[in-house]
């Protein structure tokens, strides 16, 4: 008797499995078709007018360029950087464009400073609805050359700050079911490059943080909080001054403007993930199946093994510590 009912229920569950599988295949097909259509006919850009957008590391490089892009689109800005002068300059540029910016000094490696700055931002402009976690640092040293303080600082800025800042602003996004969280990671958060073990591992960690957050948000009913994970290859901002591969024409570095244009496109079309240039999707994929020995040969051929040795410190924290 028990045997019969077990077979019956096994039959039922395999039917249910087949049905679920069919539904899944249908949904996957729909997503593939929609994705291909979105490559051919890109989605309309969403409006960010009136949104309150916090950008960390807004004083230089891509942070500044993103601030100007958001200002042009009439978002209200909150700009954080520990470089007070550079951040003020970004604020002035935003205002010259007719935008508004609440400029504040915040060292994101300090959890308590983040809490205080978040309170000041809420009081001055209101709750953050677009969060761009952009501040990042690199020392470009091998594991034995790095000091303990440098290793800790890399993780505080590139990884832990993302936890503390998201924990400040996600509750309001959840309450209103509205918001967008952008994480500036890196291609070296997807596949490693030599000569920067602290940087690569901090970026791998932040990719994991972001992706886990993404899946958690999918579990909320009717979730409308968007996320965008950004993984650029080398960008000529000054952070990685001098870094180059053997045949730069084969894998050219990005200009800050072309990188930020791609980031803005991804944010404004609610894309969850963007790596640039496009070749990086292929490299990322190959890193999952090419034997490590083969990858080493490719690294040598392309000069990925020595690219970081040409690095010239440029940023204040790099000069202080070099
Ligand atoms: N440039 C590249 O090749 C790539 C960069 N990225 C990532 O993109 C992001 C932006 O990089 P990019 O624009 O090139 O970098 P930049 O060095 O040009 O700008 C980063 C800004 O963050 C600030 N900053 C550093 N530490 C802190 C801190 N503790 N608290 C607050 N602000 C801080 C810097 O201030 P200060 O000048 O005083 O140091 C600087 O103003 C980073 O997360 C980086 O890792 C990803 C892939 C490639
Ligand atoms: C590893 C690797 C490459 C080079 C990577 C380099 C040099 C990356 C530098 C990235 C930076 C500076 C990221 C900042 O966040 C290639 C040639 C693309 C392909 C083979 C694998």
TrEMBL record:
<keyword id="KW-1133">Transmembrane helix</keyword>
<protein>
    <submittedName>
        <fullName>Uncharacterized protein</fullName>
    </submittedName>
</protein>
<comment type="similarity">
    <text>Belongs to the short-chain dehydrogenases/reductases (SDR) family.</text>
</comment>
<keyword id="KW-0472">Membrane</keyword>
<feature type="transmembrane region" description="Helical">
    <location>
        <begin position="21"/>
        <end position="41"/>
    </location>
</feature>
<keyword id="KW-0812">Transmembrane</keyword>
<dbReference type="InterPro" id="IPR036291">
    <property type="entry name" value="NAD(P)-bd_dom_sf"/>
</dbReference>
<dbReference type="InterPro" id="IPR002347">
    <property type="entry name" value="SDR_fam"/>
</dbReference>
<dbReference type="Pfam" id="PF00106">
    <property type="entry name" value="adh_short"/>
</dbReference>
């Amino acid at each position: 008797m028990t045997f019969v009912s077990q077979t019956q229920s096994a039959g039922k569950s395999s039917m249910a499995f087949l049905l679920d599988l069919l539904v899944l295949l249908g949904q996957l097909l729909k997503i593939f078709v929609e994705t291909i259509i979105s490559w051919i006919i890109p989605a309309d850009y969403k409006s960010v007018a009136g949104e309150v957008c916090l950008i960390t590391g807004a004083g230089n490089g891509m942070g500044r360029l993103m601030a100007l892009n958001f200002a042009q689109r009439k978002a209200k800005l909150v700009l954080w950087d520990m470089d007070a002068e550079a951040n003020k300059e970004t604020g002035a540029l935003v205002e010259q464009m007719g935008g508004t910016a609440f400029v504040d000094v915040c060292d994101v490696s300090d959890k308590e400073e983040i809490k205080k700055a978040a309170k000041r931002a809420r009081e001055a402009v209101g709750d953050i609805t677009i969060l761009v976690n952009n501040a990042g640092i690199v020392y470009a040293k091998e594991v034995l050359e790095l000091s303990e303080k440098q290793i800790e600082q890399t993780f505080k800025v590139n990884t832990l700050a993302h936890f503390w800042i998201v924990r400040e602003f996600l509750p309001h996004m959840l309450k209103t079911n509205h918001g967008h969280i952008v994480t500036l990671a890196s291609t070296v958060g997807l596949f490693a490059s030599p000569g920067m073990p602290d940087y690569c591992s901090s970026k791998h960690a932040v990719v994991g943080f972001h992706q886990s957050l993404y899946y958690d948000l999918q579990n909320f009913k009717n979730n409308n909080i968007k996320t965008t994970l950004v993984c650029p290859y080398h960008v000529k901002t000054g952070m990685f001054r001098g870094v180059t591969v053997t045949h730069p024409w084969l894998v050219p570095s990005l200009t800050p403007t072309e990188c930020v244009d791609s980031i803005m496109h991804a944010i404004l079309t609610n894309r969850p993930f963007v790596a640039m240039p496009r070749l990086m999707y292929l490299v990322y994929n190959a890193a999952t199946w090419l034997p490590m020995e083969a990858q080493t040969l490719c690294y040598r051929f392309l000069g990925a093994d020595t690219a970081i040795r040409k690095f010239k410190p440029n940023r204040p924290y790099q000069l202080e510590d070099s």
